[in-house]
């Protein structure tokens, strides 16, 4: 493995046992993450995008060892940390931190901001008293809050300020890796852009490696160097952000991009929407072949039978799609808009 | 759809009386005994068949305005400070629940952000739609059920007969929102108020729901007021846009001119802070600060403290009026001196 890979998930699998209701009726296992391999490179941001139920948050939690893998391995700086427990896990945690979506439920309402940020500083770095307070002040300033705000309670802060506190807390252990799980999704547009700027700024200041998990493609594209697209527990496409966003090679990526509304009058006039039919299949009963087969306008025989392997794409990255290897072969080319237009009638019945 | 009479879409009648006329509407919310202004001097007209977008950040008053149009703001926590809301000639303000029954459902339907909370988890969705139909029109259970299924087909629910027997938790988010839409349009209202109808949905599902609303509007000639914080959704879906800030209307315009060349600095700053308008990995142009707290508004322009174009002594002394003509209005004293960038900024 090249030495600029900080954190890697190798062939990760996560099954949740599907027991629901009071009487714990077994509904079979749900495979939330299905053989996912990804790498976080030093100082770069990987955007992980997908819809609800695609398993993107679960991947984030697996990488942080917040939940145990069913199969596969997590490597931190080339060391296998999949089985780490207790003390070694605690050390691991100081290297990897997380920022959650909802700053209303992720902050303890009975603690003052100073203590919220101070707790990980004493826990992971053993700083006490004035040393801890100085560090709290430094972090408050670096996330754009006033030093006086250390004495406030979370309910005295706005949503944007709370998210800044959550970020400051995550930085308290001096992590190398920051996982942001829908970190700006609950915020208003003007506040969202402030937090995105803060993340970009912190990355360049501290050289942070980031995993940015979000359903919002325009946000992911803005902050990410590379993008991985998930569907039904699998990564269907991966590559440099520009290539994935401008020349998608997987039909799902193309549909996802086309579904994002555009504010620019110029892009609105030129783009015809691809509207997918129906909903993703249930992860407890996934299709046999390609996960996207039930909604794909291009599906042909092999898609129903075999799961496509990842193949390289021109311009960087990989895609898991039979169009690349058999049938109307694309052989690494992206899906042109024209190809989609001619097939689009197939999506309407 | 066979039992439904579907009205043909009509062109927006100019010069005809508007379907909705909000006139100088001001509303206070009672907070620990004291009235706090949430809406101030709102003027808004919606013609039949028109789609109007209402955009603003949280706390701007956009949802309160929508609730007021349905008479849904509880009287014990609010106080009308002035103005009126007329829907098809019927005055909504100050009316009792009983008086409003003729308007709700028949004239105005409403859908909300979270379809799960607007459906009753204990009843089958078909029965919930049928109940609306029987409540408003009477008739037998059997007829109401047939019509409920027809409505589910109208909102493109596949296998409608079977789905009618589902409970809300058995449906996906997109299907639940379709059920809510079926319920809202069951009595063929002239106006549909959609409060963040796609915010809780995935982007591909959002595209499906917006496409459905677009088609329903075309087939039924229904006017739609779409409330959203998402400027791009407004851009793609609406004919006209109104921007609310701190309880005031600060700009209204037809969609294309608004996104090409906004006239209020707040509108322009919002468009500039969209990630899609910026180079990736470069810091976004940012609107500093946050909207004012309820009731804590400045004496002059309410946006002045965050505005990049503020002129002390001019913007912050007296309340700012609306400038411009009927179709295009903006609440900025400096609008004619400013050349503000829109969504296309390259």
Helix content of chain A: 25-40%
State the shape of chain A.
globular
Shape of chain B: globular
**Low-confidence runs of chain B (pLDDT<50, min 5 residues)?**
1-13
**Largest sheet features of chain A:** 8 strands, mixed
| Amino-to-carboxy terminus distance of chain B | 47 Å
Secondary-structure element order of chain B, as H and E? EEEHEEHEHHHHHEHEHEEHHEE
Per CATH, the class of the largest domain in chain A reads Alpha Beta
Report Rg of chain B.
21 Å
Mean pLDDT of chain B: 90
Main sheet of chain A: which strands, in order across?
6-7-8-3-9-10-12-11
Helix content of chain B: 25-40%
**SSE class of chain B:** alpha/beta
Which assembly state applies to the chains in this document?
Answer: heterodimer
Question: How would you describe what is shown here?
Answer:
The complex is a heterodimer of chains A (349) and B (346). Chain A is an alpha/beta fold and 349 residues long. Chain A has two domains: 5-224, Rossmann fold (3-Layer(aba) Sandwich); 242-347, no CATH class. Helix content of chain A is 33%, strand content 23%. Chain A has twelve helices and twelve strands. Chain A has helices at residues 56-63, 86-95, 113-125, 129-142, 159-171, 189-206, 217-223, 241-246, 251-259, 265-270, 301-305, 337-343; strands at residues 5-20, 25-41, 45-49, 71-76, 79-80, 96-99, 177-181, 209-214, 226-231, 234-240, 310-312, 318-320. In chain A, the strands form two sheets. Chain A has an eight-stranded mixed β-sheet with strand order 6-7-8-3-9-10-12-11, sandwiched between helices. A four-stranded antiparallel β-sheet of chain A has the order 2-1-4-5. In chain A, strand 7, helix 6 and strand 8 form a beta-alpha-beta unit. In chain A, helix 4 packs across helix 5 (159-171). Chain A starts with a strand and ends in a 6-residue tail after the last helix. Mean pLDDT of chain B is 90; it is low at 1-13. By secondary structure, chain B is of the alpha/beta class. Helices cover 28% and strands 21% of the residues of chain B. Chain B has two domains: 20-238, Rossmann fold, CATH 3.40.50.300; 244-337, no CATH class. In chain B, the strands form two sheets. Chain B has an eight-stranded mixed β-sheet with strand order 6-7-8-3-9-10-12-11, sandwiched between helices. Chain B has helices at residues 62-69, 97-100, 115-118, 125-137, 141-154, 160-163, 173-184, 203-220, 231-237, 255-260, 265-272; strands at residues 20-31, 34-46, 51-55, 78-87, 90-91, 108-111, 191-195, 223-228, 240-245, 248-254, 323-324, 329-330. The longest helix of chain B is centred in the middle third of the chain and has 18 residues, at 203-220. Chain B contains eleven helices and twelve strands. In chain B, helix 4 runs parallel beside helix 7.
């Amino acid at each position: 493995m090249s030495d600029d890979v900080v954190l890697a998930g190798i062939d990760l699998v996560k099954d949740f046992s599907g027991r629901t209701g009071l009487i714990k009726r077994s509904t079979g296992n749900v495979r939330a993450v299905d053989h996912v391999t990804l790498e976080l490179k030093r100082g770069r941001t990987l955007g992980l995008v997908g819809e609800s139920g695609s398993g993107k948050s679960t991947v984030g939690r697996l990488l942080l060892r917040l939940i145990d893998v069913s199969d596969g391995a997590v490597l931190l700086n080339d060391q296998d940390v999949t089985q780490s427990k207790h003390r070694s896990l605690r050390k691991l945690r100081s290297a990897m931190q997380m920022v959650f979506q909802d700053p209303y439920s992720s902050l303890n309402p009975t603690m003052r901001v100073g203590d919220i940020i101070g707790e990980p500083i004493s826990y992971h770095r053993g700083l006490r008293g004035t040393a801890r307070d100085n560090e709290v002040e430094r972090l408050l300033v670096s996330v754009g809050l006033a030093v006086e705000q250390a004495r406030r309670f979370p309910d005295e802060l706005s949503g944007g300020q709370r998210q800044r506190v959550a970020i400051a807390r995550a930085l308290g252990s001096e992590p190398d890796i920051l996982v942001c799980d829908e970190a700006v999704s609950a915020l208003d547009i003007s506040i969202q852009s402030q937090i995105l700027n803060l993340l970009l700024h912190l990355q360049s200041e501290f050289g942070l490696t980031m995993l940015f998990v979000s359903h919002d493609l325009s946000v992911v594209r803005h902050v990410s160097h590379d993008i991985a697209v998930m569907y039904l527990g699998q990564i269907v496409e991966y590559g440099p952000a520009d290539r994935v966003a401008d020349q998608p090679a997987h039909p799902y990526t193309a549909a996802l991009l086309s579904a994002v509304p555009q504010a620019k009058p110029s892009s609105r006039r030129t783009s015809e929407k691809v509207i997918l039919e129906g909903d993703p299949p249930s992860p407890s009963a996934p299709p046999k072949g390609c996960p996207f087969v039930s909604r794909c306008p291009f599906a042909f025989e092999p898609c129903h039978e075999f799961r496509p392997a990842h193949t390289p794409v021109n311009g960087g990255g990989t895609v898991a799609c039979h169009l690349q290897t058999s049938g109307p072969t694309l052989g690494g080319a992206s899906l042109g808009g024209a190809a989609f237009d001619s097939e689009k009638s197939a999506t309407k019945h | 759809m066979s039992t439904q009479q579907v009205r043909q879409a009509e062109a927006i009648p100019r010069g005809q009386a508007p379907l909705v006329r909000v006139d100088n509407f001001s509303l206070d919310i009672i907070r620990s005994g004291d009235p706090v202004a949430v809406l101030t001097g709102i003027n808004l007209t919606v013609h039949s068949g028109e789609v109007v977008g209402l955009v603003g950040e949280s706390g701007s008053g956009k949802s309160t305005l929508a609730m007021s149009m349905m008479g849904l703001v509880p009287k014990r926590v609010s106080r009308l400070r002035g103005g009126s809301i007329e829907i098809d000639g019927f005055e909504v303000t100050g009316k009792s629940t009983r008086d409003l029954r003729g308007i709700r459902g028949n004239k105005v339907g409403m859908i909300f952000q979270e379809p799960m909370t607007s459906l009753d988890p204990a009843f089958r969705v078909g029965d919930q739609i049928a109940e609306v139909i029987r409540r408003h029109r009477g008739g037998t259970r059997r007829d109401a059920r047939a019509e409920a299924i027809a409505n589910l087909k109208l909102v493109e629910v596949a296998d409608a007969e079977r789905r009618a027997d589902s409970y809300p938790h058995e449906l996906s988010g997109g299907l639940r929102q379709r059920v809510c839409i079926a319920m809202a349009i069951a009595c063929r209202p002239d106006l549909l108020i959609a409060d963040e109808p796609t915010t809780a949905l995935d982007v591909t599902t959002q595209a499906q729901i917006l496409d459905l609303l677009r088609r329903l509007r075309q087939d039924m000639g229904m006017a739609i007021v779409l409330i959203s914080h998402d400027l791009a959704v407004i851009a793609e879906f609406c004919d006209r846009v109104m921007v609310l800030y701190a309880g005031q209307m600060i700009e209204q315009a037809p969609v294309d001119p608004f996104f090409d060349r906004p006239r209020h600095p707040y509108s322009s700053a919002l468009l500039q802070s969209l990630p899609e308008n910026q180079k990736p990995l470069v810091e976004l142009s940012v609107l500093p600060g946050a909207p004012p707290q309820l009731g804590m508004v400045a004496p002059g322009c309410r946006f002045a403290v965050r505005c990049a174009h503020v002129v002390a002594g001019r913007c912050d002394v007296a309340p700012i009026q609306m400038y411009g003509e009927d179709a295009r209005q903006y609440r900025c004293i400096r609008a004619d001196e400013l050349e503000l960038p829109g969504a296309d900024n390259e």
